[in-house]
């Protein structure tokens, strides 16, 4: 297993599902040593096997890279856990099996988001700086969409929902899961990293959203306080919560407790009710202050470009947007370190 405590604050790349030789070369050419896979395309309808995970780690090593995290398992692996369904005991057994295999393969972090209704956006092509295209969210439009209007663009990772679920129900399902999976992670040496609800609003698609404010994150970290439980600190989601206010305070609160395992470094313009994703430096927050605060609290994880705008000539993964963002973050880290 990689010793994460020996590594500095640095930039990695991720948010893709398959390893290709071209992608690995691109990561190395950007000057990164680490990458993350988001819901990798692996065999298995209910769980992941060690042999398949080990192949991913070996391919990373052969490219002189580290597969530092997997973020998210397929929704079908744990939709009954998310919604408290009758099949959650069987799914728990499979998640225990998967968690142990992830750790056995030498992948040190498993990111997760406890949001059954998934990630929502109401636009995929909002123009930002220079005509680059970004995603956007309008809460009024989203609420109309869940009432039946066919206007919603992009709902990712959504569990099948047949009734309304309160925030309290989702919290209770979360506690049921963490009480059972966290001891397995502690035994295996695997870090669980919790991502906020995106967007962090009270309810979407008939499902209450728990991880949408500081109070609920504090409650979760206090209830399940373990060196193996922390945050995938999505800077964009925290910026959405209060229109950019309170982000560095959250970094201090959780960073000083060593609860920030890695960072999705993106930003938005505007509050959660109506925001547009944008280039770093054009959003609600001062990225210099973010990096400075991370350094002050002793953060030594990795930062990922996340949801970057689609720049001129970009491919599906927004290679150009990601390369620009990697360079920008590297410059910020070098300046603060200096």
Keywords, separated by commas or semicolons:
338 residues; alpha/beta; eight-stranded parallel β-sheet; four-stranded antiparallel β-sheet; 16 strands; 19% strand
Précis, in short:
The protein has helices at residues 21-29, 50-62, 75-83, 88-104, 139-146, 167-188, 214-223, 235-241, 247-255, 287-296, 319-337, and strands at 10-11, 34-38, 66-71, 109-112, 119-120, 123-127, 133-138, 155-156, 191-194, 203-204, 207-208, 229-234, 260-265, 267-269, 274-278, 302-305.
Notes on the protein architecture:
By secondary structure, this protein is an alpha/beta fold. The protein contains eleven helices and 16 strands. The strands form four sheets. It has an eight-stranded parallel β-sheet with strand order 1-16-13-12-9-4-3-2. Strands 6-7-15-14 form a four-stranded antiparallel β-sheet. A two-stranded antiparallel ribbon has the order 5-8. A hairpin with a 2-residue loop joins strand 10 and strand 11. Helix 4 runs parallel beside helix 6. The two termini are 31 Å apart. The model has no long low-confidence stretch (mean pLDDT 95).
| Quaternary structure of the protein | single chain
Question: What would you call the shape?
Answer: globular
Query: β content, as a range?
Result: 15-25%
Please, what is the average pLDDT?
95
Low-pLDDT ranges: none
Helix content: 25-40%
Summing up helix and strand content along with how strands pair, one would put the structural category as alpha/beta
Number of helices: 11
Topology as a string of helices (H) and strands (E) = EHEHEHHEEEEHEHEEEHEHHEEEHEH
Strand neighbour order, sheet with most strands: 1-16-13-12-9-4-3-2
Radius of gyration: 19 Å
Distance between the termini: 31 Å
Number of strands: 16
Biggest sheet details: 8 strands, parallel
């Amino acid at each position: 297993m990689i010793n994460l405590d020996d590594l500095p604050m640095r930039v990695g790349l991720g948010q893709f599902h398959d390893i290709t030789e071209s992608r690995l070369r691109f990561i190395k050419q950007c000057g990164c040593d680490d990458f993350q896979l988001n819901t990798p395309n692996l065999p298995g309808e209910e769980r992941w096997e060690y042999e398949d995970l080990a192949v991913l780690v070996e391919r990373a090593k052969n490219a002189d890279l580290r597969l530092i995290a997997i973020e998210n398992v397929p929704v079908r692996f744990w939709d009954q856990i998310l919604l408290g369904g009758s099949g959650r005991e069987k799914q728990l057994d499979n998640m225990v099996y998967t968690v142990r295999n992830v750790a056995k393969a030498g992948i040190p972090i498993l990111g997760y988001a406890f949001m059954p209704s998934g990630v929502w956006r109401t636009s995929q092509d909002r123009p930002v700086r220079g005509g680059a295209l970004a995603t956007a969210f309008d809460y009024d439009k989203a609420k109309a969409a869940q009432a039946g209007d066919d206007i919603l663009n992009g709902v990712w990772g959504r569990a099948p929902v047949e009734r309304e679920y309160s925030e309290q129900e989702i919290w209770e399902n979360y506690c049921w899961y963490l009480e059972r999976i966290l001891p397995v992670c502690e035994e295996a040496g695997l870090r669980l990293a919790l991502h906020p609800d995106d967007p962090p609003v009270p309810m979407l698609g008939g499902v209450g959203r728990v991880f949408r404010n500081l109070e609920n994150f504090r409650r979760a970290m206090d209830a399940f306080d373990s060196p193996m439980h922390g945050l995938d600190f999505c800077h964009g989601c925290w910026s959405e919560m209060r229109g950019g206010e309170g982000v560095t305070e959250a970094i201090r609160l959780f960073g000083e407790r060593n609860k920030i395992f890695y960072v999705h470094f993106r930003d938005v313009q505007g509050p959660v009710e109506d925001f547009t994703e944008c280039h770093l430096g054009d959003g609600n927050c001062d990225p210099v202050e973010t990096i400075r605060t991370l350094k002050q609290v002793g953060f030594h994880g990795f930062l990922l470009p996340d949801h970057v705008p689609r720049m001129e000539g970009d491919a599906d993964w927004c290679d150009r947007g990601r390369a620009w963002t990697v360079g920008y973050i590297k410059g910020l880290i070098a300046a603060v370190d200096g």
